[in-house]
Structures are given as C-alpha cells and as structure tokens.
Amino acid sequence: MTNQLKGKSAIITGAGSGIGKGIAQAFVDAEASVILVDINQKKLVDTKKDLEAINSKVSVYTFTADLSKSSSYKEVVEESVHKLGTVDILVNCAGIYPSTPALDITEDEWDQLFDLNLKGYFFLCQNVAKQMVKQDTGGSIINITSTASEVARPGVAHYCASKSGVKMMTQVLALEWAEYGIRINALGPGLVETDTLLNTLSTEKAKQEHVEKLSYCPMGRTALTEEIASGVLFFASDSSMYATGQTLFIDGGYSAGRFFKNKNK
C-alpha cells in the first residue's frame, strides 16, 4: 500500500514506541506527513530519527503531551494544523494497561486509566472532528481498542471496560459524523510483539504464562506491529471509503471463540 497516503497529514498518538511506532512507520512509508504524540519525549526523538531514515521526503514532527489532561486535546490539534496545515487522519493509540484484581482497584487507578484510555480518546476525536468539519474535506479516525473489548480477562476490569467503551463510542461517532464525510473505525489487536511485551518475559514463569496465553490463539503466535499497522493503513486510506463504525480484530483468531490446543499432541 505504498503511496496510499501521499499528500495526507496524520496525528498518531502513543507513537513513541510499540504499536504506535509501528503505525507511524507504515504511514511514513505510505508517504503521509505525520505528527507523533507521546508523553515520552526521548522516545519521540528516537522514533522521529527512525522514520526520517525510512522516508526523508515526508514531514515528521513530534509533540510531547499527556493525553490524560484536558488541556492537551486542543493543543495537539493546534500544533498539528500549525505544522501540517490540515488534519486528515487521527490514530488514537496512546493507552495504559495496569493489571490489578478487581477487589484491589483504587479510584485513582480507575480514573487514571479512563482519563487516558477513554476520555482522552473521545475529546481528541472531538477536537480533530471540529477541525475536519472546518476544513470541509472529511477525514478518517482510527481508534485502537483491544480484544479486551470483546473477551473478558481477569485482573483488568478497568481496562476491559475502557476498551469496550472505545468500541461503542466509535460506533456512535460514526453515526453522528458521517454527514461531514468523517469516517471513524476501530482496530482491536491481540497479543503484539512489542518491546514492552518482550521485556515482561524475563522469568521462566512469565514465559510459561505467555505460552499459555498463546494456546488460546488459533494461529498460535503474537502479531508483528506491521501486521497491526496494515489494518490501520486500510482504514486510513481510500481503500475503505465505505467503511465506518466498524471494529476490525487482528488477533490471530483469538476473539472468534474459545480455542485450546491439545498439549498431548
């Protein structure tokens, strides 16, 4: 899908590492100009260098922001318009994933997660949509949700609830904003091979738990970031011009139903 986004400008949040960085790499390869948003400035600088090495012909900017803070939403859009001229695409990818038993979740932890994972998504969508309406050119918004929006997991009640909220919010916004030519879809990854995931596999117990998780996935492996990025690229491009309000799960079949490998084979 090289050149699919030529001439387009995109905001990508959570772009300093992991899935967000993989999406940014795919967008730059597809010749989109991008503004990378993350709370970690150092990671943003490193990502910018990597992207410019991939394609020096497109513009790559960075903006450090805490997207759990209400003051950041308008600032991100204003900075994007200042640097890129227009906003054609938004990819909401920033998020946190604490694991805490439901009996132990505090109000502060709940609020911190929802402020970023759901509230942050909504108000950045809203501010970007206002800019797209002003431009009168339509646009595409892609929210990164999770298989946790579809399949319950113990220990992450707040995360599952936030990602389910993103999925339904995406559908409502698709209904409201179609008249402005704004398409909004969601993409739900399963387990993805990121540095964050690999760093958790430092003990034999962690490795064993990871293997057990993969046993529930029909394809039996983690996704690569570029495989997730390809789905986002589809929603961002003209290839999906008639798609809105949809959630695409790229998870190796995990959300399709319960699957258990026969360990005796």
Automatic annotation (TrEMBL):
UniProtKB keywords: Oxidoreductase
Pfam families in the record: adh_short_C2
Domain of life of the organism encoding this protein: Bacteria
Enzyme class per UniProt: oxidoreductase
PROSITE patterns cross-referenced by the UniProt entry: ADH_SHORT
Signal sequence bounds: none
Gene3D superfamilies named among the record's database cross-references: NAD(P)-binding Rossmann-like Domain
Keyword hit for Transmembrane: no
MF GO annotations: oxidoreductase activity
Oxidoreductase recorded as keyword: yes
NCBIfam families: PRK07231.1 (NF005559)
Family classification: Belongs to the short-chain dehydrogenases/reductases (SDR) family.
Protein name: SDR family NAD(P)-dependent oxidoreductase
The species this protein was found in: Virgibacillus byunsanensis
